[in-house]
Amino acid sequence: MTEQKAENISSIPIDGFSNLRITSIWTFLMSVQWSEPWLIGLLVFHVVCLCLTVVTCRYYRAQICHFLLMVGLVYSAEYINELAAMNWRSFSNFQYFDSKGMFISLVYSIPLLLNTVIIVMVWVYRTFSTMTELKTLQLKRKARREKREKND
């Protein structure tokens, strides 16, 4: 039994930057060298996307375009991962792009998907608000009609 544990522990990868055993998502994210310019650019991109998500809350059509663009970017993550895996030496110090796409999923797709979830929540809230307003107007009209019928 202990031999199996020893084999399992030795099969856990150690990253090249911080020499941490990668046993969870947190240790994986801690092993990333966040000071690389392209990762800083990616973080800025996500902040800009979040700001656009907040700004476009009042502009329905712009928000639809923003939503579709982010969904398209998430859809293309597999192709971006393949392209980045082939050309990582030109922009990165380490090979982050594995065949399973864990890195690109964590640092690229999940933040975009969180933005899309925020947009969907805004849409659901708007839909409920509109339905509430509509029902209120219907009840007011019905009350006015009943009041007119009683007065006649």
Q: Can you tell me about this structure?
A:
With 152 residues, the chain is mainly alpha-helical. The chain contains 6 helices and no strands. It starts with a helix and ends with a helix. About 7% of the residues have low confidence.
List the helices and strands and how they pair.
Blueprint: H1 2-11, H2 25-30, H3 37-55, H4 60-75, H5 77-87, H6 102-151
Helix pairs in contact: 3-6, 4-6, 5-6
What separation lies between the terminal Cα atoms?
90 Å
Helix content: over 70%
Number of helices: 6
Q: What is the string of SSEs from the N terminus onward?
A: HHHHHH
Which key phrases capture this entry?
mainly alpha, 6 helices, rod-shaped
Question: How is this structure best summarized?
Answer:
This protein has 152 residues and is mainly α.
